[in-house]
Amino acid sequence: MPLPGSTPPYGGEGAVDAEELAPGARAGAWELVRLIGHGGHGAVYLASHRENGRRAALKVLSRRFADSPEMASRFVREGRILSRLRHPNVVEILELGMLPDGRPYCAMELLEGRSLLQLLDARGRLPVVEALEILAPVCAALEAAHREGVVHRDVKASNVYVEAGDPPRVKLLDFGVARTAEAADAALTAVGQRVGSAHAMAPELIRGEPVDARADVYALGVLTFQLVTGTLPFWSEDPFELERLHLAAPPPKAGRLAPVSPAVDAVVERALAKQPGDRFSSAAAFLEALRAAAGHGARAAERTARGVAVHASVAADPDADEDQLLLAAEAEEEAARVLAEAGFSLDVRAGGIVLASLVLPESELAARAGRAGAVALAREVRDLVAGLVGPGARVQVCVHAGEVRLGPGDRRAGGALFRTAEWVRDAPGGFWATPQALE
Questions:
Q1: In sequence order, which residues have a C-beta less than 8 Å from that of residue 394 and are 6 or more positions away?
Q2: Rounded mean pLDDT of 378-389?
Q3: 26-108 CATH, one of 3.10.560.10, 3.40.1390.10, 3.30.200.20, 3.30.70.3040
Q4: What kind of fold does domain 302-438 have according to CATH?
Q5: pLDDT score at 40
Q6: I need a labelling partner for 438 at 20 to 30 A (CA). Which of 319, 346, 370, 380 fits?
Q7: Selection from 38, 57, 39, 37 nearest residue 47 by Cα
């Protein structure tokens, strides 16, 4: 659960209602400080432990759902599942209890950051290297759950929380519709009842059949496609049509929408197979195949270096005519050419965006000169692109320096330099150089 000031994954602050708990109210060992926000099934409060002062996010089920035996059982079950898992990439539960009015509550760790869905909304698709940094801990969390006989059944971007760091700290949330191997859980889901999110639901879930870890592998395929393309593989406003697509339509190729290799496409396609037996048998097997397809299978061969990156974006006006769109495409081409001729590696090139990086020398004096040269080059790129497109498009060029992980042949394998959501921004004049680039 997020700290005050960050964006909660369960919704924003809502209006005060009759069942809202007042500051100072107690729930077990916790004292409520204030409301953080409302979710679909209740409210979440900032709470403080009355003995050690630890802060937590305390989730309380709303009265109308607490009166439903099924919803109350799901709420309690989620707490029990989380208490069993105890994994660094699964949100930690601190206490599960009942308020005097009969509503269950769950105290959970506070998280700083934002959901993966909010990250994608803010900056669009991710390079494969950055997607892998997020998918690896998600897969580790699912492996831990599967070892305990738990199938998540609702793996999606809004249920993944990302905190800044190198690598980023990732937590898998919301086990509310998870299914365990225990017979008692079978009664909580009627035959044929839909659980989970329709846009990421495995065909066997739609059909109401028994599921295992491979249902979560299907959701990983959906999530990977979304990460690297910025869109979902299947979508329709009509829920029946959306189900039909998951049941019968061949999965689209991510490579048609983003700079993704055929090898990565093949891994995603296998994860999205209609029959469970045609998919990867586990989250770990999926991750291993994706790493190999992306050229990052041999982590031991990686080294860490300092680098500098230039991110250039050209966005034509929504009402732009054909000539303006062609100018924007030519400007993107010119930005890529200038950066490549200066020795930069073109890491992302699509959709009006160019991300290029350069490994800096180990000598601090030479590295300082490299950063200064990159800043000057980035300004030139901004001026060149802006001159080509004129006032009919929005141009933004950002430059940043940071750590980069390099594989064989200095292939980019991740690192803080590629987490562009942390340093790309709109700035006056269409240019931004981070303090790290200027130091």
A1: 313, 314, 315, 317, 430
A2: 91
A3: 3.30.200.20
A4: Alpha-Beta Plaits (3.30.70)
A5: 64
A6: 346
A7: 57
> Would you state the structure tokens that stand for residue 385, as one six-digit string?
């692109």
Does pLDDT of 333 surpass 80? yes
Q: What end-to-end distance do the CA atoms of the chain give, in Å?
A: 35
Chain centre distance of CA 4: 20
Please say if 154 is a catalytic residue.
yes
> Among residues 17, 67, 101, 154, which one is catalytic?
154
pLDDT given at position 191 = 33
Bridge partners, 359 (sequence order):
307
pLDDT over threshold 80, residue 274: yes
Residue 2's DSSP bridge partners are 111
Residues 224, 271 contacting (CB under 8 angstroms): yes
Main-chain dihedrals φ then ψ at residue 261, nearest 5 degrees: -75, 155
Task: Give the global pTM.
Answer: 0.68
Instruction: State residue 14's pLDDT score.
Output: 38
Q: How far apart are CA 172 and CA 382, in angstroms?
A: 39
345 CB-near residues (< 8 Å, 6+ apart): 356, 357, 358, 412
CA 195 to chain centre: 21
Residue 232 is given by DSSP the state -
